[in-house]
Amino acid sequence: MITVKTYRGHIRNWKELCEELAVDAALPREEKEQEILVKAYQKWGGEMADHIYGMFAFALWDEEEKKLFCLRDQFGTKPFYYYQTEDGELLYGTMIRDIIGQPGFRKELNEEMLQIYMSLTYGAGEDTFFKGLKKLLPGRYLIWKDGKVEIHRYWTPKFQPDESKSLEDWADEIHSTLKSIMPEVKTEDETVESFLSSGVDSSYVLAMSDAKMSDSCGYDEERFDESRLAKKTAELLGREHSVCKITPQQYFDIVPYVMYNMEQPLGDASAIVFTIACNATAEHTKICYSGEGADEFFGGYNMYRNAERYGENLKTFYVGNTNIMKEDEKKKILKHYNPEVLPINLTHEIYKETEGLDPLTKMSDVDIQIWLEGDIYLNVDKMSTAAGLEIRMPLTDRRIFDIASRMPSRFKVNEEQNKVAFRTAAAKVLPEEIAFRKKLGFIVPIRIWMADARYNQDVQRLFHSEIAEKFFDVDAINEIFDDYVGGNSDNWRKVWTIYTFLVWYEEYFVKR
User: Fold this and answer.
1) Among 81, 76, 74, residue whose Cα is nearest residue 156
2) Buried b / exposed e along 233-243 (16+ C-beta atoms within 10 A)
3) How far apart are CA 465 and CA 446, in angstroms?
4) pLDDT of amino acid 11
5) Rounded to the nearest 5°, which phi and psi values hold at 143?
6) What is the DSSP letter of 301?
7) Is residue 458 packed enough to be buried (19+ CB in 10 Å), middle (13-18) or exposed (0-12)?
8) What residues does the Glutamine amidotransferase type-2 domain cover (predicted)?
């Protein structure tokens, strides 16, 4: 007998799977999807995820073989954690708080993660900030039997450029594939809204969906405010538009809530905005689309346009989308620095997998395997879950990635533009001015807000606290803070990364 011990996710191709696995399609969604998992495991075992499209993390108990089978989807859109106790038991789940509250768990800080965090602004790799608590990495499954854990990798991103197609061919394939995916992302009886920025990804998703309402965030600071452009896009597409106006006080007030519900520190300033957006959107819908995935798959970041000039040097320094603090600076500010704990160590195996491929492909693969899982999908999952909102990401799909994996890099970026083929596909349903609009990113006025004494009181408190004394040279971090307040706005990321760690530590090791 196979039983589902824990499951979170959404299976897109459930109709086909119900037919193939003889599952009653009329069952309630969660019951139906759990039945699909059980029967897929019985039929395909460790290869079951090859047959499923969607986002998922789960654990199945095989009573006959007396073993636990745990699996996380190919991209890591849903988290999965595990911990072996001193007496050989395995604690596991999709939420860290579900594990640390169980008998046998010893809550200790894994301080080495702080060293990684100070560069990347998120916890990368299989380790977490809790000693002994591991992440099951994307594309892996875990078997626990007779007190032993085995990890198997069932999926690895593969890149095989196909030179036979034109730009228009690639755009057609992207568009037709997304068109076929969209009906799977929701059922006819579900009502969905869609997050909308000024960018092409969310605009394309909205245009391809039947969402009647779009949602965005805005600020009083005009140069950071994308909501005006988003509203124009929504009007052009004939959709209603809701704007959540965020104030600096609201932003700073919610930081402890974010770090608690994130369960690990995250120094991505946009996560706070995303949280506020999720909470506001959850007031009028329970399901919302979002556009994650296209940037990493199709060359969306401006830095990718520099890939060729980096050449073979990439493997010596490129650790993903963020790398804000170098080793010399970390040595100066951290009280406990281990020269063997380096972010670049996380990428060695990834670079081996892309040996012989072009620099852009290598950069994309690092971001797909490290940044997406460690930052983007973590943020989406944790903060939507906290709000009671289900987010579905149509562009995060193996069928979309399959196109990107075969696409030569010249159709992803050129000297003038990023996401070239993707934007060409989007232009089939969007005006060119939107499809080819310059990427702004999810920008936040934090760099000016945090320098304001009206809003940075908690930053100053924690930078002078006993918590800070445990981990940092307090004079050194306050020198960074003072330099930032004095006008060096480039230091805001360093200040924010230190601050968010201190808030998280206070939430998990002081207050609780």
Assistant:
1) 74
2) bbeebebebbb
3) 22
4) 98
5) -120, 125
6) S
7) middle
8) 1-147
What architecture (CATH level 2) is domain 167-435? 3-Layer(aba) Sandwich (3.40)
Q: Which residues contact 394 (CB under 8 A, 6 or more apart)?
A: 178, 181, 182, 185, 205, 208, 209, 289, 291
Q: Residue 391: CA atoms inside 13 Å, Cβ hemisphere, count?
A: 32
Q: What was the pLDDT predicted at 438?
A: 80
Cα–Cα distance between 508 and 259 in angstroms, integer? Answer: 9
Nearest CA-CA partner of 373 in 394, 399, 346, 337: 346
**Sign of the torsion angle spanned by Cα atoms 426, 50, 345, 372:** positive
Q: How many residues does the chain have?
A: 512
Structural contact between residues 383 and 375, judged by C-beta atoms closer than 8 angstroms:
no
Cα distances (angstroms) measured from residue 214 to each of 171, 209, 413: 25, 11, 29
- Sheet arrangement for strand 90-93: 90-93, 81-84, 134-135
State residue 42 phi and psi, 5-degree precision.
-65, -35
In one-letter notation, the amino acid at residue 235 is E
The tokens describing 240, both together, are 């209603």
Taking only the tens place, the pLDDT of each residue in 387-443 is 999 999 999 999 999 999 999 999 999 988 999 999 999 999 999 999 998 866 557
pLDDT of residue 226: 86
Q: Which residues pair with 244 in a beta bridge?
A: 217
The low-confidence residues of the chain, meaning pLDDT below 70, are: 439-442
pLDDT of residue 440: 65
Which ranges constitute the DSSP H helices of 45-111?
A: 96-100
Q: Which residues neighbour 187 within 8 Å (Cβ) at sequence distance 6 or greater?
A: 29
Long-range CB pairs of 146-149, under 8 A, 24+ apart, other chains included: 146/66, 147/88, 149/82, 149/84, 149/90
> Is residue 288 left, alpha or beta, with left meaning phi > 0 and alpha meaning psi from -120 to 50?
beta
| Cα-based angle 259, 11, 44 (whole degrees, multiple of 5) | 115
Domain boundaries, the chain: 2-153, 167-435, 447-510
Task: Give me the CATH topology for the region 2-153.
Answer: Glutamine Phosphoribosylpyrophosphate, subunit 1, domain 1 (3.60.20)
Structure tokens at 511: 């207050």
Phi, psi of 134 (to 5 degrees): -110, 155
Copy the structure tokens of residue 303.
């830095």
Report the 3 state secondary structure along 215-240.
EEEECCCHHHCCHHHHHHHHHHCCCE
Residue 293 backbone zone (phi > 0: left; psi -120 to 50: alpha; other: beta): left
